[in-house]
Specification:
Helix content is about 35%, strand content about 30%. Strands 1-2-3-4-6-5 form a 6-stranded mixed beta sheet. The mean pLDDT is about 85. The chain starts with a helix and ends in a 6-residue tail after the last strand. The chain is α+β, with helices and mostly antiparallel strands. It has a single domain, classed as Gcn5-related N-acetyltransferase (GNAT) (Aminopeptidase, 3-Layer(aba) Sandwich).
Length: about 120
Amino acid sequence: MILSDRLWRKIQPATAPFEGVDRKEVEIGLLKGDYQLFESGDSVAITSAFENVLRIGLAGGALDELVDVEKQIQRYAIKEGFTMIEIIGRPGWEKALEGYDKIAVILRKEVGYGLH
């Protein structure tokens, strides 16, 4: 088991909008390197790559810790040469994170020009 029960409990509610996404699928994606895991304290986010976009698909935990996780993801995206970060999530994230544009239910941010 690659995800601890504690971390799974944090991101499991975020899987509800995605039919068929379960712990096994997430763990297989992590093992294969298709997904990346970022965490801070008691919070976690799972990302996946789509060409030049790094997408945050699952996240859960405390908002202040998730803002720290998002900064980790930005650094990773810049290092790995991604030009955009997208978040598939609840609309409330647009209020909590700076620099993202609301694109339907997906938030997108250009990266590579330094951290803000």
